Amino acid sequence: MSSKKQKLELNWIGKEKRPRLEPRIFLEDESLSYHASKAEPALSEDREAGSSGAHVYHDNLLIHGDNLLALKALEQDYAGKVKCVFIDPPYNTGSAFGHYDDGVEHSLWLSLMRDRLELLHKLLDDRGSIWISIDDNEMAYLKILMDEVFGRNNFVTTICWEKIYTLKNSAKYFSAMHDFVLVYAKNIEKFEMNQLPRTEKQNKNFKNPDNDSRGPWIDSAMHARNFYSKGSYEVQSPSGKSFTPPPGRYWSVSKENFNALDLDNRVWWGKDGSNAPRKKTFLTEVKQGVVPGTIWGYEESGQNAEAKNEIKALFADEGGVFITPKPEKLLQRVITIATNPDDIVLDSFAGTGTTGAVAQKMGRRWIMVELGEHCETHVAPRMKKVASGEDQGGISKSVSWQGGGGFRYLRLAPSLLKKDEWGNWIINKEYNADMLAAAMCKHMGFTYAPSDQQFWNHGFSTETDFIYITTGSLAYDQLKRISEEVGTERTLLICCKAFMSEGADFPNLTIKKIPQAILSKCEWDNDDYSFTLNVLPDPEEDEQEEEMDD
Fold first, then answer.
1. Residues contacting 454, CB < 8 A, separation 6+
2. Is 310 helix (H, G, I), strand (E, B) or coil?
3. pLDDT tens by residue, 373-388
4. Residue 93 to residues 89, 136, 256, Cα–Cα distance (Å)
5. Most buried among 57, 135, 171, 548, by the most CB within 10 A?
6. Per residue, what are the HEC states of 389-431?
7. Please, what are the domains in the chain?
8. CA 517/CA 496 separation, integer angstroms
9. pTM for the full model?
10. DSSP state letter for 302
């Protein structure tokens, strides 16, 4: 057997098939975008601008469309910029939900997840992390898939979240009471995380029975089992009682240090001064942060019923309520650990929009993607309520949220190329000149930044390399003029319908025809890479097949 370390890989039907995604552009629907400046500004004056100022929200994006295409569209501008990804993907349980078809065949589910995880990996900051909510049905497979995409060494932990706190006697075997949250770092060596703030429950053991001016304290033993050569002395209490360490133990400080602590009123002898000595530790001296654990109870992290009530409060007039929303307290806990103010939080399975709502209330920027129509009917209205300050549910009161900021509502543009009636690929007639220029910049790796002074400057790749896009045909005289304006210190990529150079060579120009220049770059006119594909067998068809087999 070879001693070479073997890499564990998960194989499934269709694993080798990978989509060749078209990098779409976004189109803003200004009727659904919202900024608090349109309404009454509601930011609290006593909150720091760095953590709650309106400038934090200028880049918030709510994207309606297929999330795989949306992630690809985000890649050019956001690669390496997202600090935290939280996703709550369909669990593939075989149950049809009102807003999701959560029953994708296992191999297809793995492919759909793999394709999205690879793009999410590219979008993450090297210091960032990804958090994925999942249940028992696919958790083990997802763990191995994450090892492949993110690297096993970047695994951080598996959190067990108590989503339900009551037993269901209707359960066939066990009453499921938890979900998992898988946590991976982009780069474990650079991974940044915060501790959780101390809670009142954690501070309740700190008392001040002697009215010490330094405030509440907690006492602890001053002896230990480990041998200490200077820890075998005798001490005397204020009442005159003598003490030595218990058998087999030693004082944890020297005689000199003990006396110094006693002189500073840091030794507690009990109310009557006759107890064994114990060391006082003041609340102001302990860490104000707490290392997160891996068991998250419902009291501090919320639970399903709480999440449903939050949604019902926001959409009292709506007929349909999501069956599996996440509570705001769960996202608050994740975002507290994984981010700092102004960081970008991304959720590509937005659902009801909880991730964005919590991120905004906590002074983070956010990006959410949602395919369903509820992106417009539920998520956008929810985020407007957050920005206006109308949403006072969830964590609002605990963070003193009074509103502020807003978001841009974006849709994915249609495919750049369409087939004509003869089956030839042509530029989509829905694209105007600006849309075409922006799309071609994305395809050719340029930043779209049209110039007001130079008609031929639609974007750049470096400080001296530019791009010009036109559906017209360029004659020799036009090319000569452009070449002269570009000059010898700059270069220009021209994408046009046709050109006539009359054999002349323009060293500073590279000319390509469209759509020929991009035909082989990706697959065109495919708008659905979603989880809504129904690949489960029809029960009636199964029964018919069984009858035929008999």
1. 485
2. helix
3. 989 999 999 999 999 9
4. 11, 9, 66
5. 57
6. CCCCCCCCCCCCCCCCCEEEEEEECCCCEEECCCCCEEECCCC
7. 26-197+291-412 (3.40.50.150), 200-285 (no CATH), 417-513 (no CATH)
8. 10
9. 0.82
10. -
